[in-house]
Amino acid sequence: MSDAALSPARVALVGNPNSGKTALFNALTGSRQKVANYAGVTVERKEGQVTAPSGRTLSVLDLPGTYSLRARSPDEVVTRDAVLGKLSGEQAPDVLVCVADATNLRLVLRLILELKAVGRPMVLALNMYDIAQRQGLRIDLPGLTRDIGCPIVTTVATRKRGIDDLVAQVDGLIAAGAVGGANRWREPQAGEIRDAHREAQRILKAHVRPPERPDTFTGKVDSVLLHPVAGLLILFALLFVMFQAVFSWSKAAGDAMGDGFHALGAFLAATLPPGLLTSFLTDGVISGVGSVIVFLPQILVLFLFIILLEDFGYMARAAFLMDRIMGGAGLHGRAFIPLLSSFACAIPGIMSTRVIDNKRDRLTTILVAPLMTCSARIPVYTLIISAFIPSRQVLGVLNLQGLVMFALYAAGIVSALAVSFVTRRLFWRGAVEPFLMELPAYKTPDPLNVARSLYLRGKIFITRAGTIIFPLMIAVWFLSSFPGAPAGATDPAINYSIAGRLGHLLQPLLAPIGFNWQMTVALIPGFAAREVAVAALGTVYAIGNADASPGALATTLSHHWSIATGLAFLAWYVFAPQCASTIGVVKRETNSWLWPAVMLGYMTGLAYLAALVVYQVAKASGLG
Amino acid sequence: MHDLNRATAKATPLGPNGREAVRLSAARPGHRGTILDVRAGPHAADHGVAAEELHRRLLEFGFVEGAHVEVLHEGAIRRDPIAVKLDDMRVALRRRDAEDIWISLDAE
């Protein structure tokens, strides 16, 4: 029989969370992987290829981890439907591979009983078998095979042990024409779950001898890491290091990239004849691509931490420690990492909300993440503070400018907590999901798996967030450049563009919050990114190079604006969704335009309200 | 099987040692015992999911009659949530979700 005659087959990996399923998937498929989304949902679809020695191609689907086929989250719905062959756009798998942590068999045995009811050919992969052996755990493999009625392969995914054996077993089942029986699975009721546990317990007792040297390491580490005081202190120290890393380690790389794109733009502007094409290339394409790439170092550093903590097993502990603290504001314990990262930038923050399983908890976190003061607001804050807030000492030790900066940060945090609290009360009243979470045994992260996951995150950001951010940047460029200035025009070109006209048109609307037309115009290109507003203000006030020397711009602003206007502008920037990239990422992560629209709406509303209150109060106090 | 009726009708279960069982939600670190009953409690209506759903989730996680539990840790604020050793695995849960798990404490 020639190789070509062997038809390709589909294999699905199913298993409990923390069973090393993804490591096994990586070991099986290596670099032959593809990541996409399942049609219509934001659940990640990971598929890879492996070629069996017979020449047959197996396409392997890595399904989200679950404890039961009774789906409770969107991820678990995908797993259930894929296993049952009911997922739209997917064919039913030919063989199921159930991945089990060999040291933690109790719950997976019950899942295996459910999977058997589905009636598909199945292979059980007893993963992390080396740890089981080290603990002196004895598993009677022939007996277990007999009892559960499917072939068993022992694997150590991180060492690539047992992989060939697993492929051979799967291929053997397909070659033998195994088709399995009819699907007898239906959602189990409480009584059936109890019965299944009893059966699992019987199997466990019959074929598995408890470890001679059980894992005591996890218990010892937990007594420190889960300590009510020491645990929280360690967590905060860890978060501090992480925040520093995202904020400063990646800054050099991000700045270098930013400078590189800036230089490339300047080079093109100098070599090409001035005109629309040059403007499109430099201000549109290059700054558009640049605005995607500059986020990459931050995203990689943040995800390196997240992946390491997740693989080590700490993430569940952190959620345990933070659950009550975040819970007061209606946020999930796992929301703290996304929110903390959002101080650097909301983009990696929103991307990291994937650590939250529950859809409502995740959406709340996404909605409030941009309220955290991101680093892009700093240039705007610095400019306005240096223009309007005198640098004098307060109470002897505090600097007034620093105090205002701190107040702006605090305003962001307080409003994020308030918004999530209100969201919880208003939209998802009383809908508090149960908080039930396995605390997995601690494990040393595998460098290769960490590297692969990190590469995957970077690639996803570039290919998918990028494809949304880039067109938005082009749109902003278009609005600010068309139509061009007429011959002999004296005002800056932006005044004649659509953005300029929009600015003039919108100005009456923003007059109550003290914004003049120059500010209104600058807000439109400022939508590309918050810090762009500084350059845009420079453009409308015809001050070249405002980025490099904000001093001149600050002086100009302090002459043209009242203090009330300056303060209102600061208040606006605490809330305003002035960032096309954030909108793009929210669209990408929620797979809908509804949530970016909700975010745009509520943030603009808050920004207007805050600026209105600040301006009117300041004016009434004689600062107008 | 009418779990709901059963849960409302039955009083506090008694352990084999004759002592009254306690709710897991009231247990403190160091307490250990055996699960006597996992109910679909009537108070669970204020959960985001129905009482029967919480009941099944607890069962799926391995909170079944006969399983051995030991409370290991509790959170800093209102001693919530709790981390328990459940047979040979570790599970974290909020006290409010543990109210329907009745355990008979081992003798000290």
Q: Which descriptors would you attach to this protein?
A:
heterodimer; A: 624 residues; Rossmann fold; seven-stranded mixed β-sheet; two-stranded antiparallel sheet; elongated; B: 108 residues; alpha+beta; SH3 type barrels; 2 helices; 6 strands; 16% helix
Structure, explained:
- Chain A has 25 helices and twelve strands.
- Chain A has 624 residues and is of the alpha/beta class.
- Among the domains of chain A are: 3-215, Rossmann fold (3-Layer(aba) Sandwich), CATH 3.40.50.300; 467-623, no CATH class.
- Chain A starts with 8 loop residues before the first strand and ends with a helix.
- With 108 residues, chain B is α+β, with helices and mostly antiparallel strands.
- In chain B, 16% of the residues lie in helices and 29% in strands.
- Chain B contains two helices and six strands.
- Chain B has helices at 3-9, 51-60, and strands at residues 22-23, 32-38, 68-74, 82-86, 89-93, 101-105.
- The A-B interface holds A 67-68, 70, 72, 104, 106-107, 110, 188-191, 193-194, 197-198, 201, 210, 214, 218-219, 222-223, 226-229, 232, 316, 319-321, 323-325, 428, 430-441 and B 1, 3, 40, 46-49, 52-62, 64-66, 72-78, 80-81, 83, 87-94, 97.
